[in-house]
Every structure is written in C-alpha cells, then in structure tokens.
Amino acid sequence: MQFPLFQLFFADLPIFTSGFWIERKRAGGRANQAMDWSNSPIVRRIAHFFDGYLEADSLCTPEEMKRLGEHKYSCVDNSFLDELIMKRWWEYAVTWCPMWMAPNLITLIGLIINLATILILSAFSYTATEPAPSWAYLQAALGLFLYQTLDAIDGKQARRTGSSSPLGELFDHGCDSMTQVFVTMNICYAMQLGMVYNGVMFVSIVSVVLFYAAHWSTYCCGQLRFSRFDVTEAQMTVIGVLLTTALFGTSIWEWNILLGFQFRHLVVMSAGLATLYQLSGHIDTILSQGAGKNGSTIAGTSVMFPLFPLLMVIVPFCMIYSNSETTIYDDNITLFCLCFGAVGAKATNRLVIAHMSKSELRLWDWIYVGPFAMLVNQYYLPNAIDEFKLLVVATIYCYASLLIYCTAVCRQFCEHLNINCFILGPRYPNGKPHQIQQGQEKTQIVTRSRAARGRI
C-alpha cells in the first residue's frame, strides 16, 4: 500500500508494518498465514482519505522543514518574578531530573498533570457556578504550579543533556497553547464566573487573544519578548485565586465592594486593564517593529494578515454563544470553552510554525469545520440537529484535528532532524533510511569502479 503520509503517521503500529499472523486449518494440517491488513479495501479507503487530509491540513513543505531545522531560538525575558526568585527555583528543580529523561517528556508530563487536575475540578464545577471541595482547588493550584515548573525546566534539561533542537521550542509552545484554556477555566471555577453575565466567555476570549498576540508580535519582530508582568505572573495570580478560594470558600468573591459590584467584578476588571496594557505592547511591536522588508513580518508578509485567522477563531464562537435561544452553552460552558480552546490552540500553533519556518501563514484550517457546523445548524437549519449533541461532536472533531496536526508535524520534524520526540538519541542510529540506501549505492559504485581498475 503506497500511502507515504499515512505510513508516516502510523509508522510504529504493527498492523500497518508487519501485518498480523493468523492460524487457519487447511487440508493436511495447520499452517501460519500472513494477513496483511494494509491490503484491505476498507483500510485502503481510510488510508487514501487520511493521506489527503494530512497533505492538505497537517504537513509542512520541504522548504518549511528546512527553515524549521535552521531556526534559532531568540528570547528577551524581563519578567519580574522570573528574575526575583523563579529562575533560582527552576535551576534547582532541574537537578532532580535524571539525565536520561528527554526534555519533551518533561513538558508532556506537565501537560498531563495540568489536564488531570483541571478535569477533577471541572467535575465539581461543570457550569462554573457550583462550589467545589477545598481540596479540589488545592490540587488544581498544585497542578498548575507543577506544570509551570516542568514547562520552565525543559529547556534547561535540553542544555544539560545536549539535546537542544527547534523541536523543543515547537513542542513547548504547542503544549502552552493547549493548556491556555485549562488555566483560564481554573479562574472561572474558583470565582464562579458562570454567575457573571458572559463572564466565562469573556475571560476565555481575552486569554486566547493575549496568547495569540504574543506569538503574532514574535512573527513580526522575530523575537519572543516577555514583559515585566507576563506568563509567570499571570500563572501565579491564578494559583493565588485558587488558594484563596480553597482557604475562604467561593463566598469571598461575592463580597459587595461598591454600588453592587462584587469582589469578583473588581478582580476581572483589574485583569482586563492589565490585559489591555500588555496587549498595547504587542500591538506596538506588530505595527512598528516588523523585521522584514518595509516593516513586514519575518516571512515578508503583511503584519496585519495574522488578524484574519484570529477572527476566524473568535467570531464564529461569539455568534454561536450570543445567538443561542436556550441555555445549552451556559449549561455546558466547560465543553464549549474546551472546543473554543482547541480551535484557538491550532491557530496559534500554525502561527508558531510560520514564525519558526519564516513562512506565509495559512488562512483556512480544517478545524474550522467544527464551529462552522454549529453556526450553520443554528442560523440556517433552525437547530435541525440537537445543539448539545453537535457540540459534543464538534469538540471531539476539533481535538482530533488538533492532535493529528501536532502529531504529524512532530513526527515529520523528527524524521527531518533524525531525533526522537520523547527519547534521547537519534531516531536512526545508522542514518536515515534514504541515506543508508544512498550510501549503499555509492559503495556499490565504488566497488564496481575498483573492480574495473583491477581488471585493467
């Protein structure tokens, strides 16, 4: 079966490499017969579809892979907490990691811990209106702190083990984009923002926009920049909110401050002002510090073009949420925001890859099929399909699209750099397969040439 992209994605699955062995009774005795499932018509159809999907949506061009491999990480860190104490803590924490542990494995463990703790908390506060036990907030705070630590020490582990590569930066930013929605939901659960009109949706949009804008400015100036109040400070603020709720209960956020405004309103407005300040810095970088020709992006494209993928993420979800005649999305706000977060994460991942490969950003992405399906069902089919069922299907589809994209790009990058994602050492110790074949052909040519000279 000649489906190279399909085989690239599933290269390690025995069903598509060596086939299954089954036993069948034959006249005169039993015999083993190889059954190659790759020749099955159904598998061939699936492989053909999957091959086309990967090529259209998930794979980088050879030119992009070449530039990705040549990418050099550039960062300016002015974070207040990083300089004050966190860098010393991270330098100590990395010494606990064994030398055999791959940096990307550390990042993945942090992602899983953060995901597990937020799922536990969401089980008690699914609509962001129910109070959860104190221990649920404590474990969420601990999970976020562990994720922050593991996310910070992966680069240090790479330098310790001599395994630094552009894949590490790509994998790190990919995990950060996926956890962005989890961190945001922690705030919503702790402060019960489901009780605030459009509160959960507002905080989620602000989070996605701010994270996207940070990488948008990087795509323009070619350098990732952290301000005095940035990711570390925001994460510690979320941890503080979770600990406050664990100690004093959710009622603390209901305190009336002034003119009917509650404590939660004050905190959200303060966060909004801080976001505007940080966003203004990104906008200034985007509009005035383009590293390309005539102030363009590092890919030589317009600095305003990344705005359109961001609008493709935000506008459909705002229309769906605001136009619903029922409370289905408020009653399932966790699921709705997870779907929104998946679409935002993939848009950000494409922006990161465009920056690292100095390539033009794509406008269309097949993950948009999820929210567009909900939009069409709501506006043009008067909810012919049950909104909740469609939301579940759309969320599953969006996360499948996101995971396929991330997996395909990482595997393609590993093949290009001849490295493993979660294991130290080369992917092919003796060289890439095509290099081995080329080497064998050269050896045969040299041998024939020497034989010819010997005969002469």
TrEMBL record:
Q: Which family does it belong to?
A: Belongs to the CDP-alcohol phosphatidyltransferase class-I family.
Q: What is the lineage of its organism?
A: Eukaryota, Metazoa, Ecdysozoa, Nematoda, Chromadorea
Write the Enzyme Commission number(s) for this entry.
2.7.8.2
Any Pfam family hit? CDP-OH_P_transf
What chemistry does it catalyse, as a reaction equation? CDP-choline + a 1,2-diacyl-sn-glycerol = a 1,2-diacyl-sn-glycero-3-phosphocholine + CMP + H(+); 1-hexadecanoyl-2-(4Z,7Z,10Z,13Z,16Z,19Z-docosahexaenoyl)-sn-glycerol + CDP-choline = 1-hexadecanoyl-2-(4Z,7Z,10Z,13Z,16Z,19Z-docosahexaenoyl)-sn-glycero-3-phosphocholine + CMP + H(+); 1-hexadecanoyl-2-(9Z-octadecenoyl)-sn-glycerol + CDP-choline = 1-hexadecanoyl-2-(9Z-octadecenoyl)-sn-glycero-3-phosphocholine + CMP + H(+); 1,2-dioctanoyl-sn-glycerol + CDP-choline = 1,2-dioctanoyl-sn-glycero-3-phosphocholine + CMP + H(+)
Give yes or no: UniProt keyword Membrane. yes
Q: Which InterPro entries match?
A: CDP-OH_P_trans (IPR000462), CDP-OH_PTrfase_TM_dom (IPR043130), CDP_ALCOHOL_P_TRANSF_CS (IPR048254), CHOPT (IPR014472)
* Associated pathway: Phospholipid metabolism; phosphatidylcholine biosynthesis; phosphatidylcholine from phosphocholine: step 2/2
- Per the UniProt entry, the signal peptide is 1-19
Keyword check for Mitochondrion, yes or no.
Answer: no
Q: Which GO terms describe its cellular component?
A: endoplasmic reticulum membrane; Golgi apparatus
Tell me the keywords, alphabetical order.
Lipid biosynthesis, Lipid metabolism, Membrane, Phospholipid biosynthesis, Phospholipid metabolism, Signal, Transferase, Transmembrane, Transmembrane helix
GO molecular function terms attached to this record: diacylglycerol cholinephosphotransferase activity; ethanolaminephosphotransferase activity
User: Some GO term, biological process aspect, for this entry: which one?
Assistant: phosphatidylethanolamine biosynthetic process
Where it mainly occurs, coarsely classed, is: membrane
Which protein are we looking at? diacylglycerol cholinephosphotransferase
Q: How does it sit in the membrane?
A: Multi-pass membrane protein
The record's subcellular locations are: Membrane
Q: TM segments?
A: 105-126, 195-214, 234-253, 265-283, 303-321, 333-357, 388-405
